[in-house]
Here is the input.
Amino acid sequence: MRYGLKVIEKMDLTELNSYRIKSICKKAYFPDSEKELIALLKDNSSKPLNIIGNGNNIILSKEYYETPFIILNKCFDKIVFENGLLIAEAGATLLKLSEIALHYGLTGLEEFYDIPSSVGGAIVMNAGNKDKEIKDVITKIRFLDLNTLEVSEITSEQANFSYRNSFFQEENNHIILKAWFKLSPGDPSEIQHKMLQGKKLRWAKQPREYPNSGSVFKRPEGRFVGPMLDELNLKGLSIGGAQVSTKHSGFIVNKGCATGQDILSLISEIQRRVKMHFGIELVVEQRIIS
Here is the structure.
């Protein structure tokens, strides 16, 4: 154990990815502070590393990884309330962040209560819904440049947020360290009601009963993915243990023992059929760990 750092050999990643894909990595590191993370990266500057957060919105394409993983899950997740702002490290979950906002009677994060994501992952993909995106509540982001190992901070405006996109997707050699959230005072009972209502609506529409990583594809301009797939009768289409959800065709679920390759093959087949019928190239919203 170096730097006081938690290290696990032959780490089973099954419970650390929301598809519950069975996968193992040769070594996993769990840094608990910015100092530990930077020291770890400096010590491995010439070696490839896979870095994941809460394991949502990713597809593990291999059953075994020689490449070590840095995992920001149940670590690097401190949240503090200072000068009217919530400051959250990248490994904190949106669930925890929104619950702390409720504790302080702060409104602005209700829409994110039931979105399964870490703060870092939510910023990378500008998570949200039709009413609000993460960019709407962030004032500042602190990040690490993997090329120089220098720490920098940018404003929300400088992060080039757009629909399910940000500076951090375009420049994927940057790791988010923490973010500052500006919220407003609100009535705790109203905040909680809105949180629970949002959760109820998601569970009614989304296949939460099976492991999945949320919406698979970005929404094409002027179209919605689900209705296109429904028109092609793709609900229930399966390859191996991966299936287009029968509840919401914009989701792929693990019906049992799905591999990363099952999911990727199903994605390719969906893209092929949509391209052939509609002339639209669907873009995958999820990150493929190769």
